[in-house]
From TrEMBL:
Gene3D superfamilies: 3.30.70.270, EAL domain, PAS domain. Residues 15-85 form the PAS domain. Pfam families: EAL (PF00563), GGDEF (PF00990), PAS_4 (PF08448). Residues 82-139, 207-261 form the PAC domain. CDD domains: EAL (cd01948), GGDEF (cd01949), PAS (cd00130). PROSITE patterns: EAL, GGDEF, PAC, PAS. NCBIfam families: GGDEF, sensory_box. Residues 444-685 form the EAL domain. It comes from Stappia indica. This is PAS domain S-box-containing protein/diguanylate cyclase (GGDEF) domain-containing protein. Residues 294-433 form the GGDEF domain.
Length: 685
């Protein structure tokens, strides 16, 4: 004892009060009860479970506070403690405001100084988080033990920390025997160094890796294994090991390979399908754009008369016909030519040459083979023929290479095939845009890009030309003309747009865009009230989808048709099918007017012109240009006027460039005129 201790006065601590303070300060539930279960002390964490205050709980029995549902589970543990032994209960308890919580409760017998039993002290501890962690660990251990995948954890020294039963059985060992064992010892030094260590090192550097490898199963069977390696990090984020999962994917890979083959093969004919065809084309386009290809050709083949086989002899005969054609194509196309079925009765070829002559020679050989084929079915015989379209992509400058796309080449071949079909079939048509070279080819690409940009979203600029009545000089109509800006900012007019769109199969898209813009302007009332004339190509006239949309739109706006004049080129008449004539009749029935455009460019107009099909005849520039000094042209114009009068139709002279010509045309009986002599094109706004 020090002097300081001697000087310090002795304090008499109130022991009972101290015990009560300690109990009250505890965050865990605590209570003390007598042998007859009467609670003599308790803290708030305990009494709050029963929804009571400390004052309300003290003096009541444990049964009253715990409730009749919970007390029967507590009673055996209280009895054990009252018998002088410590008892421990773990159980779920519903805590107000916290839900179900898992508690570890220790029931401790309490004796006085003489060893007499005073009662039981119960100490509770919330171990919910520990319980959940144990449950997760138990489930994880169970899953790891029972999983069919082979799972191991390998440390940085390439030794097993653990492995599961599946992997142990594979090697004929126990899981316990793997602990601390070197991976090199298990798989062999050579295989470890060449096949395993590079992947493990990548994983231990922080990368999750996955790869397939071939292995030998315990029964001697060759199998394909999928290996997945994931970094295992400690609490500080440091990589301590690699978690290795091995899965037998032999059947999965076989099925995948079979499905991939089926996905690239046509079920009926056994040759490549459209997906395979386009995949092959994508490879060639990519190589071409990088400069690693001298070019290639794409061929579309549309069988002529296939519908006759199906309709006459049935689908069985049609299937046999297609199978024979596929076999014929493979035999006749030659080495290095990919053959595919790309549609119902459509086939495609990819030829590894960009030379149009070479591609044409192969197609000529195919056409000859078709001529020699006959399908005999029951008592019938069917001939074969085809419409063939070729798009050849030859070596060119870097700018042209970058403009080549899969979609564009397919479009060229498809359009060439359509032209062959429209010309009567049994012929070959080469896409002329693909045959251009040098500066012409570069200009073609620039024009195509400009038109495609307009279609894709930029839209066309709309200009208008005024049409006047030659008798009064007053405006009677405006023709709307699309224009498009090039990359240099120059404006290209309808002639370039039409020529480019026709060569590349884009006329329907151009017509749809321009006509929709015109209709929108008319619907909004943003015009001067004069009728508006707009071109309608033969391709668009044959589109049933467009026809339905246009008729529906005009029927919903009954005042609109009176303001519309659709212009159809004379050159389209010879190619027009009944559905095109029907659409024109439907438009006129709604109140629209139809003008026969570019009349006089050929003789088709005289042979195809139908009474009561048109409302105007527009005389082509070939007859109106240089009119003053050419008596033959004046006679021709006079003849057109006479024909129009016989049909009861007014005439419109196009491209009138000289004011002098206006009087000449008036004298020849022409009704209306347009051109620079009347007014130059102006923005239509």
């Amino acid at each position: 004892m020090t002097a300081g201790d001697a000087a310090r006065p002795e304090v008499a601590w109130p022991v009972e009060g101290l015990h009560a303070a300690i109990i009250a300060a505890s965050q865990d539930p605590i209570y003390f009860c007598t042998p007859d279960y009467i609670i003599r002390e308790a803290n708030d964490p305990y009494v709050s479970i029963g929804g009571l205050t400390r004052e309300e709980a003290i003096g009541r029995t444990v049964q009253e506070v715990a409730g009749p549902g919970a007390f029967p589970r507590r009673a055996p543990y209280l009895e054990t403690a009252l018998a002088g032994r410590v008892a421990v209960l773990q159980d779920w308890v519903t805590v107000p405001g916290q839900g179900r919580r898992f508690f570890d409760v220790r029931y401790q017998p309490v004796h006085d100084g003489q060893g007499r039993l005073l009662g039981v002290a119960a100490y509770g501890r919330d171990i919910t988080d520990l319980k959940k962690a144990e449950e997760v660990l138990r489930l994880y251990e169970s899953a790891v033990t029972q999983m069919s995948d082979r799972l191991s954890v390998v440390d940085r020294d390439y030794r097993y920390i653990l492995t599961n039963e599946s992997n142990a059985r594979w090697h004929g060992c126990t899981a316990e025997s793997f602990r601390g064992r070197s991976l090199v010892e298990v798989v062999g030094e050579e295989r470890f160094a060449s096949e395993i260590r590079p992947w493990l090192d990548r994983c231990l550097a922080g990368e999750t890796v996955e790869y397939d490898f071939h292995d030998m199963a315990p029964d001697g069977a060759r199998v394909v294994m999928d290996a997945r390696l994931q970094p295992f990090r400690n609490g500080d984020g440091e990589i301590e090991a690699a978690v290795v999962t091995l899965r037998d994917v032999t059947e999965t890979r076989r099925l995948s390979e079979r499905l991939e083959r089926l996905a690239l093969q046509d079920d009926l004919t056994g040759i490549a399908n459209r997906r395979s065809f386009e995949t092959g084309l994508e490879r060639r386009v990519a190589a071409y754009r990088k400069g690693g290809s001298k070019g290639f050709s794409v061929v579309f083949i549309d069988l002529d008369g296939f519908k006759l086989v199906n309709d006459t002899a049935g689908h069985g005969a049609g299937d046999r016909f297609l199978q024979d054609i596929a076999r014929l194509l493979r035999q006749s196309a030659g080495e290095g030519v990919e053959v595919a079925r790309i549609g119902g009765d459509e086939f495609g070829l990819i030829i590894d040459t960009g030379e149009p002559v070479a591609a044409h020679a192969i197609c000529s050989r195919l056409l000859s083979a078709f001529e020699g084929y006959r399908l005999s079915w029951e008592d019938m015989q069917f001939r074969s023929s085809a419409s063939i379209g070729i798009a050849s992509v030859a070596a060119d400058d870097a700018g042209a290479r970058q403009a080549i796309t899969v979609g564009r080449v397919l479009q060229w071949a498809d359009f060439a095939c359509m032209q062959a079909k429209a010309a009567g079939g049994h012929r070959i048509v080469a896409h002329d845009g693909a045959e251009k070279t040098g500066d012409d080819r570069k200009a073609e690409i620039h024009h195509l890009l400009a038109v495609e940009r307009a279609i894709a979203g930029d839209g066309f600029l709309l200009h208008s030309m005024t049409v006047i009545d030659l008798a009064t000089g007053k405006p009677v109509m405006r023709e709307v003309l699309p224009r498009v800006a090039s990359g240099t900012g120059d404006l290209h007019g309808p002639s370039m747009i039409r020529a480019t769109a026709e060569r590349h199969g884009l006329m329907r898209a151009v017509d749809r865009l321009v006509i929709n813009a015109v209709l929108a302007r008319l619907e909004a009332g943003e015009t001067d009230g004069l009728p508006v004339a707009v071109d309608l190509s033969a391709e668009t006239l044959h589109s049933q989808v467009f026809a339905g949309q246009l008729i529906d739109r005009l029927e919903r706006a009954p005042d609109l048709p009176r303001s519309l004049v659709f212009e159809v080129s004379e050159s389209a008449l010879s190619r027009m099918k009944p559905e095109a004539w029907n659409l024109m009749a439907d438009l006129r029935g709604l109140g629209c007017r139809i003008a026969l455009d570019h009349f006089g460019r050929g003789v088709a107009g005289f042979t195809q012109l139908r009474a009561n099909a048109f409302d105007f005849i527009k005389i082509d520039r070939l007859l109106t240009a240089g009119l003053a000094g050419d008596p033959v042209k004046r006679a021709a114009v006079s003849g057109v006027v006479g024909l129009a009068e016989a049909l009861g139709l007014p005439t419109v002279a196009e491209y009138v460039t000289e004011p002098l010509h206006l009087d000449i045309l008036k004298g020849l009986g022409v009704t209306y005129a347009q051109g620079h002599a009347v007014s130059r094109p102006q923005a239509w706004c």
